[in-house]
Amino acid sequence: MKRVVITGIGCITPIGNDVQTFWSNLKLGVSGAGKITKFDASRHKTQIACEVKDFQLEKYIDKKSSKKIDLCSIYALAATEEAVNDAKIDFSSIDKLRCGVIYASGIGGLQSLEKQLEEYYIQKDPTRFSPFYITRMISNMPAGMITIKYGFQGLSFTPVSACASSNHALICALNFIRTGQADLIIAGGTEASITESAIAGFNAMKALSVYNENPAIASRPYDINRDGFVIGEGAGTLILEEYEHAMKRGAHIYAELIGGGMSSDAYHITAPDPHGKGACQAMKNALNDGNVLYSDINYINTHGTSTPAGDIPELEAIKSVFGEHYREIFISSTKSMTGHLLGATSAIEAIACIMTIQESTIPATINTEQIDPNVPTDTRLVIGKSMRYEVNTVLSNSFGFGGHNATIILRKV
Question: Active-site residues: which are they?
Answer without folding.
Answer: 163, 303, 340
